[in-house]
Amino acid sequence: MTRPRVLIAPVTVTPTKPLTPSHVKGLLWVDVLYRATALVADVDYRYSVTTYNVTAQTLGFWAYMDAERVDPESLTEEAIGEHYVRFQARAEPPSYDVLRPYAERVEATGWVHPASARMLRIWAGHYEALGLHDPGLTAVAPPGLGLAGVLSLLTAHGLCLDLRDDGGPVYLDATRFGIPLRKIVSAEGQPNYLACTLRDLLPLAQSYDRVVLLYDRELHEDYVLLSKVLEVVGGVVSREVVERVPINGTVRSSRYGGWSGHTVADLLDAVRDAGDTDAIRLGLRLYFIAVLGRGVQQSFRKDLLRQSVVRAGRLLAADRPCDPVGVDRVLRRSMGSLEYADPYRLTSALLGRRGNPPVRDLARAVFC
Amino acid sequence: MATQDYLAAVLRERLTRAGIDAARLESVTEPERDCTAVAVLRRFEITTFAESALRFAANVSVEQGADWLAALTRTAFLAGNPANLRGRFPPAYLAPDESIAWYGPAPSSDYTGLRRLLKAFPAGNLQAPTRMLIPACADGKAGPRSCRLRLATAGLTTASYLVHLNHTLAEAVLDGLLRADDPLVIDHVPELTDADLRTAARIRVHRDTADPACLRAYTCLYVR
């Protein structure tokens, strides 16, 4: 049987602030999706930091760091994030004239400002500690299409309203599907993150049997629009919403900070003595995927995170024979009729009493 | 230079033609009648816009025309691609090149769905040639009259240009002063002079964009 070709394309986290529990949940969710689906399909995991380094929030932060003459080399993840919060708190966003030289440098060479380069190196360490597949955090991975190519393709499909000659922006126009106009390029010529996503995914969508988009609720409208556009050019698209993790009942954007005590280092410190490396990696996945689920109902709780790690240790210690058939059975059950695994169903299966799930086999293949 | 009193008198004439109490000059920007037209534009192009504005105004029914006139031909200018909208929102008039669609005139609540999809047309820098010829647009047959419009462009954006041109053409058509098959020459000048105002068949006066406390003449229409 031919293996389906699947493209997994989650929202890319811009390297300007510390990873929080919301980010960790999303990264673990995608990691399980990727590694489990790779057992039954040919999977590509598209995660290009380069593509999104031309967005205003990243370029503006870089310009701010230069204007403030901050040397990021010795800064911690949190210290870089505190500069980011100060940048976001400024009343006026920087003009595109200030940002354009940075954007041109990114486009020409894939250049990354030292602040974000430092952050990405720190994150690479987090990925290693969490047992995450590194999709190319520090690689130069430009999108397959330039902005002009995107606008040309959109125009050919009747999806572009370009008002730049009239002093206006460029809109993505899916009004024929009942979706409101969405600005993707400012009147000054600055593309937003959605334009970057289109540069990345439009040239890829047709090459796969299924494109799986992962995002959080705040981006829902944009991702409904994005999936419609990808379908118009021939893609087959699934949208998976993974909600953020409330801290003390509140979901807040990282631009306001609020990560104190909840960074990856803090999470790992909280469970360091609760199990070995495999137990910690499996326990994190049990907590962030099976316990928290897709939704936003539960606030983050370190005590439940620790319990999950302890439980993972017990599951891994149970003496069960190697069972490749069992792995396939549990995996296929999580997929339903789709070409990709459902991380929630798959991870929850480890906690079920029925079916005697092959924990160690699954852990080795997917979770650790 | 025309006095403010003279311009106010011209403005009162407009209100009277629209059936609005001319004493209520302060309310000129907010007519009580809820009747609006919507123009959806894919781009700013004067010839196509003027042609379609004339054709749209000529096509509205007598009752619609009276209501629209009483609302001072209020019109919203939205950015959008008419070709993408006609399935869900069939227009009252569509320009032959499908770059402009016209809706209404109707109560503003009729456009809730359309407005939800679209954005206001941008206020860009106006670059208008000195003279433009708007050919007769009724089946290519020129009418018997020759019409000329002088439009003061100093300080106008593309969006405000659309407003003044549309009000002038729509109200002239609804009054029977202008017909859609009349060829029209549009002359763009920085400011209108007293000589321009003296011989005009119709003058459009509105608040001065540079000084909202003052009135300014924006268009003069001549019909021969």
Quick summary of this structure?
The complex is a heterodimer of chains A (368) and B (224). Chain A is of the alpha/beta class and 368 residues long.
Characterize the structure shown.
The complex is a heterodimer of chains A (368) and B (224). With 368 residues, chain A is α/β, with parallel strands linked by helices. Helices cover 48% and strands 8% of the residues of chain A. A 4-stranded parallel sheet of chain A has the order 2-1-6-7, sandwiched between helices. In chain A, strands 3-4-5 form a 3-stranded antiparallel sheet. By secondary structure, chain B is of the alpha+beta class. Chain B has one domain. Chain B is built from 7 helices and 10 strands. Chain B has helices at residues 4-17, 46-59, 62-70, 82-85, 112-117, 158-174, 194-198, and strands at residues 36-41, 75-79, 93-94, 100-106, 119-120, 131-134, 147-152, 184-189, 202-207, 215-223. In chain B, helix 2 runs parallel beside helix 6 (158-174). The interface between A and B is medium-sized, with 18 and 22 residues.
